[in-house]
Amino acid sequence: MTAANTLGEYLRARRELVDPKEVGLRVAGVRRTPGLRREEVATLAGISADYYLRLEQGRDRHPSGQVLEALAHAGAIIPVTVDGLPERAYLGVERLDDLEHIRSGAAHERTTLLSPFDSLIWDRLRARQLFGHEVVFEAYVVPEKRRYGYYSLAILHRGQIVGRLDPKMDRATQQLLIRGVYLEPDVAVETALLDGLSETLRDLARFLGATSVTVERSEPAPLATKIRPLLKASSAKSSRKRARVSATMTSGA
After folding, report:
1. pLDDT by residue (tens digit) across 179-238?
2. 20-45 core/surface letters (b: 16 or more CB in 10 A; e: else)
3. pLDDT averaged over the chain?
4. Domains identified in the chain, total number
5. Cα dist from 236 to 74, 179, 209, whole Å
6. Which of 45, 53, 87, 213 has the smallest C-beta neighbourhood within 10 Å, fewest atoms?
7. Which of 92, 40, 44 is nearest to 67 (CA)?
8. In this structure, what DSSP letter does residue 250 have?
9. pLDDT digits (tens, 9 = 90+) for 126-181
């Protein structure tokens, strides 16, 4: 989904999965479209078909709370309360299993990187409310005035945003440069974070076609010192694997 029309894309995908009989609609004749028609969702929600069409097409991207409640009444979305958010939020029906998984006490183990335009944080106010994180996009800031870099990525670790980093791909040397890693003041440099971040950086390097990852600096400084050996060991292992593959191909020729 694009950040610009998340609701519209979701509504379209959701209505195509709903059997009209599930919501009490009588079906007569052959239906050419799967699931519900737009006008049927509009009727269930108590809004005009034209307005619902604008929502799906992204021509109206800021529906009122009343409209969202109507869509929830129609079964298109589910109202939820989120700690840290003063207003009501809404959940996609297909994410109920994920919600129950979280409620069961399951831990968030994953570490990943988020662009400033990721749907989780592109709303800056919500990012502050949920994570205490200030989204920074400095592509249009002159280099000498940048704090975190041209296109810094937020670090999401075990359900919390713990910092950000400034990546740069050097195509000439096939090297992924991390010009800076900046942790939030209250975040400790622990083994779990080092392991998760090093694995994420290796994944990013593979995606970009880089053969190595170099962390130039960090705040606090010990993070760079501790993560470099992990990345170096991984780079050496990958080099040995490529050498074995090359040797096998040569001998086969």
Report:
1. 999 999 999 999 999 999 999 999 999 999 999 999 999 999 999 999 999 998 765 555
2. eeeeeeeeeeeeeeebbebebbbbbb
3. 85
4. 2
5. 56, 21, 15
6. 87
7. 44
8. H
9. 899 999 999 999 999 999 999 999 999 999 999 999 999 999 999 999 999 999 99
Q: Is the pTM of this model over 0.90?
A: no
Q: Are residues 123 and 13 in the same domain?
A: no
User: Could you say which of 72, 87, 103 is where a domain stops?
Assistant: 103
Q: Please, which residues have CB within 8 angstroms of residue 197's CB and are 6 or more apart in sequence?
A: 111, 155, 157, 181, 227
Range of the domain at 59: 3-103
Helix (H, G, I), strand (E, B) or coil at 162: strand
Task: Outline where 89-183 has alpha helix (H).
Answer: 96-103, 124-131
42, 76, 103 — which closes off a domain?
103
Q: Are residues 82 and 143 in the same domain?
A: no
What are the tokens at 199?
């694995």
158, 238: one domain? yes
Q: What count of Cα atoms within 13 Å lies in the side-chain half-sphere of residue 27?
A: 15
Question: Are 213 and 121 members of one domain?
Answer: yes
Note whether 151 and 29 are same-domain residues.
no
